[in-house]
């Protein structure tokens, strides 16, 4: 889309690359807006089954651009609110993408970079990756990121890192549930490809429905209303063409049409 956000479609997979390596892929206002638009478009792109987000160079994403952050000091409340909404919309666009989103993380994933990791569906990290929510050390709270981080690792674990701003490594991120796999740096691309291949075996509409269900579960307490909703979704899925094809393929011992 732009020099700093590069999109490549390879077969059914869209690769979205943060392309500002000289600044460790720090996000400026234009990048944030373009990322949101990119994921909104990919979410409805019929030819795309899956999205991979990664960063070029030594780091995944060092968070917000310091120049942009500094400029906000001289902005009025309305301007700051507009910038904050852009960042919130970007995270929401990634989170709500109807396609599975895989993040490939190397080096630093700080601040908003860690937020992007938190909204990805699957994350593979190099063993040299590090994570931090350093905002409190700069005098403000990572409020835009916190709901997504809480969904990823829980509020108890989140307390330590949003209050201290300390860095933690890939193994700790794995223990917390922020990432799903940690591999040697030279095995990162292969591990990403393995995740991609695994995801492509799933039925597209079923995956989108599963993502919708996850959001409903986050927003709804267990009880009769949620139970009725799950039953309705189950019935709808069983009546669909994907289910018929998947079950038929299973009984015929062949791959389904989407695999």
UniProtKB/TrEMBL annotation:
It holds the Pfam family ECH_1. GO terms for molecular function: catalytic activity. Gene3D superfamilies: 2-enoyl-CoA Hydratase, Chain A, domain 1, Lyase 2-enoyl-coa Hydratase, Chain A, domain 2. SUPFAM superfamilies: ClpP/crotonase (SSF52096). It comes from the Bacteria. CDD domains: crotonase-like. This is Enoyl-CoA hydratase. It comes from Paramagnetospirillum magnetotacticum MS-1.
């Amino acid at each position: 889309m732009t020099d700093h956000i590069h999109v490549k479609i390879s077969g059914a997979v869209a690769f979205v690359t943060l392309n500002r390596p000289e600044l460790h892929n720090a996000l400026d206002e234009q990048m944030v807006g373009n990322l949101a638009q990119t994921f909104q478009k990919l979410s409805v792109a019929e030819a795309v089954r899956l999205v991979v987000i990664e960063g070029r160079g030594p780091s995944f994403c060092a968070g917000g651009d310091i120049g942009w952050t500094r400029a906000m000091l001289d902005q009025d409340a309305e301007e700051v609110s507009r910038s904050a909404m852009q960042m919130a919309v970007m995270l929401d666009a990634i989170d709500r993408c109807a396609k599975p989103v895989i993040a490939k993380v190397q080096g630093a994933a700080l601040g908003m970079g860690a937020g992007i990791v938190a909204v990805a569906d699957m994350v593979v990290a190099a063993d040299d990756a590090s994570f931090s929510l350093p905002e409190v050390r700069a005098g403000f709270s990572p409020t835009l990121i916190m709901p997504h981080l809480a969904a990823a690792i829980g509020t108890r674990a989140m307390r330590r890192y949003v209050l201290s701003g300390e860095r933690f490594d890939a193994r700790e991120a794995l223990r917390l549930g922020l990432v799903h796999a940690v591999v040697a740096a030279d095995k990162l691309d292969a591990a990403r490809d393995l995740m991609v291949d695994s995801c492509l075996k799933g039925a597209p509409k079923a995956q989108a429905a599963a993502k919708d269900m996850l959001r409903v579960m986050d927003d709804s307490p267990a009880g009769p209303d949620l139970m009725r909703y799950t039953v309705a979704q189950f019935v709808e899925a069983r009546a669909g063409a994907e289910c018929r094809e998947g079950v038929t393929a299973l009984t015929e011992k062949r791959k389904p049409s989407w695999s």
